[in-house]
Amino acid sequence: MTPETLETLQAARAARRPVALLTRLPDGAQLLYPDQPVPAALAEAAEAALRDDRAAPVTLGEESWFIQPQTPPPRLIVVGAVHVAQALVPMAVQVGLAVTVVDPRRAFATEERFTAGATLVDEWPDDALNALRPDSRTAIVTLTHDPKLDDPALDVALRSDAFYIGALGSRRTHAKRVDRLTEAGHGPEAIARIRAPVGLDIGAVTAPEIALSIIAQVVAARRGKLDGAP
Amino acid sequence: MSGTEDILETARAWRAEGEKVALATVVETWGSSPRPAGSRLAVTETGRLAGSVSGGCIEGAVADIARQVMQSGTPQLLDFGISDERAWEVGLACGGKLKVFVEPLA
């Protein structure tokens, strides 16, 4: 790999721009898709690799090529810069999620409380989420316990294609939340997308244990192993 | 996802420090290989390693060849498998087979 190719790959990663690296085997000649013109069969394979987010070998006549997609990392939006969020952020970063923490309360979303690679946003959750435009590569989890903050976030989340939506709170808290979201016009099918109580049931008690149960559930959703996943 | 850790960023940093660097990438797997195609290992001439191409079974052998590749400047395509004598030597005990491409970062 030439240093120039490496620089282009890293710039694409930083800009969240999907690219595919095409390597001819065994001589190592490389092309970047879509930055450089490539034969139609390779372009098709590169598109498929990017769509499926899966590396694949391709035979083109006598030539063997290896197609390696580089897609932007999935995102996790955390609403509520609370204690559980402090434990959640480093775990999320470890499993390869790009994390944004949203909390309009100035005392919470501070650099001092979140040193491990999360973007901090101190806007209201609905404004913040609308600006972040959650897509099918986005997970959203609300942690504030406060309907004033959680509900507007869930309202935006339910209108999005987010691959995971979780909300902290007991069954009783969630039942009341379901009533409010129903009143706000969300149907039962949409509301059923919310994982609540949030996280896999591992008997979590402490903040790091709750964070672990949440991150395990997000990974399960991302890998298609969550029952009833949308 | 081909990997969560940014091996290329580590490779770039090592090169910026003046190290010679080679990259190994899993390009094809059969059977129960522990790491999927696209998994990367970065190796320096001084023996630093980042990432992985297996569960630790063949990293040593790949690193040795990576140092040859840094010297020669010529990439190599390696086969590891249970039917291969080398696999026994380096202990790919899982029964899987894989191809690893090793290239200089230069």
Automatic annotation (TrEMBL), chain A:
InterPro entries: MoCofactor_Util/Proc, XdhC_Rossmann_dom. Residues 76-218 form the XdhC Rossmann domain. It holds the Pfam family XdhC_C. This is Xanthine dehydrogenase accessory factor. It comes from Muricoccus roseus.
TrEMBL record, chain B:
Residues 14-81 form the XdhC- CoxI domain. Signal peptide: none annotated. Coiled coil: none annotated. PANTHER family: ALDEHYDE OXIDOREDUCTASE MOLYBDENUM COFACTOR ASSEMBLY PROTEIN, MOLYBDENUM COFACTOR INSERTION CHAPERONE PAOD. It holds the Pfam family XdhC_CoxI. Transmembrane segments: none annotated. It comes from the Bacteria. This is XdhC and CoxI family protein.
